[in-house]
Amino acid sequence: SSTVSLAVIPGDGIGPEVTAEAVKVLLAVTDGGPVRLELTEYPLGAEHWLATGETLPDSTLEALKGHDAILFGAVGAAPGDKSIPSGLLEREMLLKLRFSLDHYVNLRPSRLYPGVASPLANPGTVDFIVVREGTEGPYTGNGGVLREGTPHEVATEVSLNTAYGVERVVRDAFRRASERPRKKLTLVHKHNVLVYAGRLWKRTVERVAVEFPEVSHDYLHVDAATIFLVTDPSRFDVIVTDNLFGDIITDLAAAVTGGIGLAASGNINMDGTFPSMFEPVHGSAPDIAGQQKADPTAAILSAALLLRHLGLEKEAARVEQAVEEDLAARTGEPRTTAEVGNAIAAAVS
Ligand code: NAD
Ligand code: IPM
Ligand code: MN
């Protein structure tokens, strides 16, 4: 038997609640199998910052690099919370992890599972993936402020797009499209306004497309993409897009496929140089934290993505199957976070 070493970062708010259920399911699905999971928990997040002033110390970052993968919950304070500066943990911890571990593929699948209610009257068959760039765009902290607090303040956030960064994520998206039945890729950008970055993305897609003649591709401006995500989500197969557009459209995609409580993601370093990190798309949900109201399904499906990334396809499929059955059997009667986790863990045992 072999050992897989996982780092677990529960984080803030509902993070610890949903992560506990994902861990339960991971342990249940691997129990008695050939792979033994070894879990190491890292207490990072708001509480840790308040107690120590640390967001993500270098020593912790180095320790995290020694694991095979990372399971992450969520970080972030409530919007009105004055005890911690807005964006501090998001930037100095979560984004620092994604950047330092070179998570250039932010994989966000959207599927409307059978029996799950969509807010759309006629959603059709919805099953697509968003390949969101994870290390560039306006997320790099490449900006600044002049004359802050004065009537003459100037604030900039510059979107960074490199040929190297765009090409590797576009190639990954094409490869994923080539392995799916419909083999269709849609570039989502805004090259009518963001002309320099837009040109780079468009030209890169045209060039990489030549390597994948079996994949068809088209293009949508991001504003129009939000229309079709609501009016005709079944048209999408693989969407490739930049970091910020990808953030926004994946919350929308989650909403049309049954809610943010179901949306999983992986921050993937495809080269295997660094461990990849799996987390629900949602945040720390301060409005429901500590009440066992959060749906752990997104965290559990993220754990399935983690298993697949580590080559544990059978285990990943079992978790997804159990989730699918659990979703189909839901009656609308509320269950606690742990009740949902227990049911899915029992189904994979
Ligand atoms: P959010 O995703 O935390 O919450 C948005 C809404 O969705 C809330 O009403 C919440 O109750 C609901 N929700 C979220 N997850 C749910 C679940 N599993 N089950 C049921 N309902 C769920 O987004 P927000 O309110 O914009 O952000 C709250 C904090 O989280 C902020 O500090 C933000 O920066 C941070 N955040 C962190 C991550 C992350 O760690 N990956 C992602 C997004 C937001
Ligand atoms: C997400 C979140 C993060 C993002 C924030 C918290 C940095 O919204 O994972 O979708 O914008 O990527
Ligand atoms: Mn987001």
TrEMBL record:
GO cellular component: cytoplasm
Cofactor note: Binds 1 Mg(2+) or Mn(2+) ion per subunit.
Major localization listed first in the record, in broad terms: cytoplasm
Subcellular location: Cytoplasm
Residues binding NAD(+): G283, S284, A285, P286, D287, I288, A289, G290, Q291, Q292, K293, A294, D295
Gene symbol of the encoding locus: leuB
Cofactors demanded by this protein: Mg(2+); Mn(2+)
Family: Belongs to the isocitrate and isopropylmalate dehydrogenases family. LeuB type 2 subfamily.
Function as written in the Swiss-Prot or TrEMBL entry: Catalyzes the oxidation of 3-carboxy-2-hydroxy-4-methylpentanoate (3-isopropylmalate) to 3-carboxy-4-methyl-2-oxopentanoate. The product decarboxylates to 4-methyl-2 oxopentanoate.
Keywords: Amino-acid biosynthesis, Branched-chain amino acid biosynthesis, Cytoplasm, Leucine biosynthesis, Magnesium, Manganese, Metal-binding, NAD, Oxidoreductase
Organism: Arthrobacter sunyaminii
Isopropylmalate dehydrogenase-like domain boundaries: 5-344
Residues annotated to bind Mg(2+): D223, D247, D251
Record's protein name: 3-isopropylmalate dehydrogenase
Residues at the site labelled Important for catalysis: Y139, K190
